Amino acid sequence: MSESTSESRTKAPPAAEPRPEASADQAAMPVLTPSPARMGLAAATVLAIFVYLFWPFLERQVRFAIEYQADWGHTIVIPFIAGWFVWLNREEILKAPLRPSVTGLVLVVVGVAWFSFCSIGPVLFRHHNLMGMGVGITIFGLVLAFCGWRAMRWMWFPVLYLIAFSQTISDRFLELLTFQLQGIATVGAEIGLGLVGYDVAREGHTLDIYQNGEIIPINIAEACSGMRMLVAFLALGVAMAYRGLDTVWQRVTLVVMAVPTAIFVNILRVMTLGILSTWDSNFAAGDFHSMVGLLWLLPAFFIYLGIMWVLRLLVIDDDESDADAASAELCIRFDAGVVRVFIACVCLLVAAQVGFAWAASALQVHLSTEPVPLRQPLSLVPSTLGGWKTIQDVQYDASMIEELGTNSYLTRVYAADEDRRKPMLQVHVAYYTDQIDAIPHVPDRCMVAGGLVQRFADPVNVPVEGLGAPWTPDPDHSLDDVPYPMAEVVELATDTRTNVRMPVGTPQVRYMEFVDPARPDRRLHAGYFFVANGRWRPTPSGVRMAAFTGGDKHAYYCKVQLLAEGDASYDQEAFFNDITPFLAEAMPHIMTSLPDWSEVKAQEIPGNSK
Question: Can you point out the beta strands (E) in 343-471?
Answer without folding.
Answer: 384-385, 388-393, 409-416, 425-433, 453-454, 460-463
